[in-house]
Amino acid sequence: MAAYILRRLALMIPTLFGIMAVSFLVIQFAPGGPVESVVASLQGQGGAGDRLGGGGGDAVAASGESSSYRGAQGLDPEFIKRLEQQFGFDKPPLQRFGEMIWNYARFDFGTSFFSNATVVDLIWQKLPVSISLGLWITLLSYAISIPLGIRKALREGSRFDTWTSGIIIVAYAIPGFLFAVLLIVLFAGGSFLDWFPLRGLTSDNWAQLSWPERIVDYFWHLALPLVALSLSAFATTTLLTKNSFLDEIRKQYVTTARAKGLTERRVLYGHVFRNAMLIIVAGFPGAFISAFFAGSLLIETIFSLDGLGLLSFESIYKRDYPVVFATLYIFSLIGLLTTLLSDLTYTWIDPRIDFERRGS
């Protein structure tokens, strides 16, 4: 197993390099950029040169020289050069890519172009929201999906199975952001009730609350976002649990266990449950990371939750490349490590699975 883990870790290096190389190449051909963003702000509001690139009045001095940046006509070429140096675009693309990879290998992610904060600090500020949404939606979906899936498998073909399948399909088909808007209209001061807050994870008086009150306040703010996210989150896991249970119940060892006189409860939860839950439990790390980093951008926006999803979107929109590439690198690395963790979970649950033997 140690050799298998080492091989997987070694394969992560070229995989990460490929992801970053392709992304960097695409960015080179994408229109717009941080320099163009500053130029656009200069054209839209006077005096921006002092704040963004220095130079004050010289920035808007007329120049006869042409510029490669759209909308930069009429700006001082020296000011454009200072902007390029500030953002690192005075270096060849290959050199910039090499320096980026070297810094990322040492987990040095640099500083945001526009927020005057390090990328690590920005990500750290958004973590509470992403952790809250990812952790609780994963636990909530598993807590609902597994018992419901088992119940559906035991009562296959019954009215309960039919009705719950219909509800699951309808819930899965409803867009989460549309349901979130409905929740706001009904329960967050829209047109009816005003029971739940609509911004952030905590109230303004958080520091004055006792610990029990803080816990209540925390879940009070999370209630509507979690309901909106969980509407379709448990559908896949529920059906997967049901089908996995049905497959195991039909196997020969179940018939043998029943023939030996074991009670139905002992057969189901002493034998079937462990084998049926293999694929469910082993997929938990991936499900958590998926919910953690791929939380709904629209849900975060609708409920004014400033998480990693919103950070990534705003960074792409502003062409804040240090944040864009750093989040891509971190997410890709965690995704690769999670895949390895899922494989190791398989072997922990069922020792019969040996990836090292299969790889050889």
From TrEMBL:
Question: Which Pfam families does the UniProt entry name for this protein?
Answer: BPD_transp_1 (PF00528)
Q: Which family does it belong to?
A: Belongs to the binding-protein-dependent transport system permease family.
Listed under GO cellular component are: plasma membrane
Q: Which residues cross the membrane?
A: 9-30, 129-150, 162-188, 218-241, 276-303, 323-349
UniProt-listed PANTHER family? INNER MEMBRANE ABC TRANSPORTER, INNER MEMBRANE ABC TRANSPORTER PERMEASE PROTEIN YEJB
What keywords would UniProt list here? Answer: Cell inner membrane, Cell membrane, Membrane, Transmembrane, Transmembrane helix, Transport
Q: Which InterPro entries match?
A: MetI-like, MetI-like_sf
Indicate what this protein is called per its UniProt record. Microcin C transport system permease protein
Q: What GO terms in the biological process aspect are recorded for it?
A: microcin transport; transmembrane transport
Subcellular location(s) of the protein: Cell inner membrane; Cell membrane
Q: Which residues form a coiled coil?
A: none
Give the organism, scientific name: Aureimonas jatrophae
Q: Which residue range or ranges hold the ABC transmembrane type-1 domain?
A: 127-342
Membrane topology listed for this record: Multi-pass membrane protein
Q: Is Zinc-finger one of the keywords?
A: no
